[in-house]
Amino acid sequence: FGGDYENLVGSLPVNTTVEPYQTRPLTDISMVVLHHTDAASAVTWKAVATYHTTSNKWNKIAYHIGIRDYAGRCVVSLLNLPETRSYHAHTAGNNHGLAVCVAGRKDVEPVTARELDALRRAVAVIRRWATWAPVLPVVGHGDVEGNSTTCPGRYLREVIPQLNETMIDDQGLNAEIWRVAKNSQVLSPNPASAISSLQRGTD
């Protein structure tokens, strides 16, 4: 990402009066959970962290990675280390999700070309990094078990299929596994089951 990347870990507000976030094994991460801030894109990650630590009484900001398109630049920010079990998507999401948040009100604001490009590249980097996960799907906050929310908003939901269509290895197997998983409406596709379905010639 070059100059459009920043590491904000350790520089955002922290609430030291509450229980600190715990850590988890990186191998527990099995999905990317997509969020929006539901606030103007002018709102900084420092302001989001202040809200999370003061109003929500959380230890730190909820997200691991932030994408913010503002004033002609789309910057990707590291907000928490990935092993941080932050509070962003109830128990299942907190335990197994890497939280990627796009700044803005994505129920009413379409995803910009710069945001979509940054999302695609961020997800590609995450998938290459997560070598323990043969398939790492992107899911919406509201799609994670235990959550009842419209987050990440209508327009971000529309791009989730595009982000998941890029799950392809040299043989195209991961894309086929994801296609079967989508048709079966599951969040964590089982490669063995998907391959069996393909061999049977079913969707």
Tell me about this structure.
It contains 6 helices and 8 strands, in the order E-E-E-H-E-E-E-H-E-H-E-H-H-H. The chain has helices at 45-54, 90-96, 113-129, 154-165, 173-184, 191-200; strands spanning 5-7, 22-23, 31-36, 65-70, 73-78, 84-85, 97-102, 138-140. A 6-stranded mixed sheet has the order 1-5-4-7-3-8.
How does the SSE layout of this entry go?
Blueprint: E1 5-7, E2 22-23, E3 31-36, H1 45-54, E4 65-70, E5 73-78, E6 84-85, H2 90-96, E7 97-102, H3 113-129, E8 138-140, H4 154-165, H5 173-184, H6 191-200
Parallel strand pairs: 1-5, 3-7, 3-8, 4-7
Antiparallel strand pairs: 2-6, 4-5
Helix pairs in contact: 5-6
Essential attributes:
6-stranded mixed beta sheet; alpha/beta; single chain
Short structural summary:
The protein has helices spanning 45-54, 90-96, 113-129, 154-165, 173-184, 191-200, and strands at 5-7, 22-23, 31-36, 65-70, 73-78, 84-85, 97-102, 138-140. The protein is of the alpha/beta class and 203 residues long. The longest helix is centred in the middle third of the chain and has 17 residues, at 113-129.
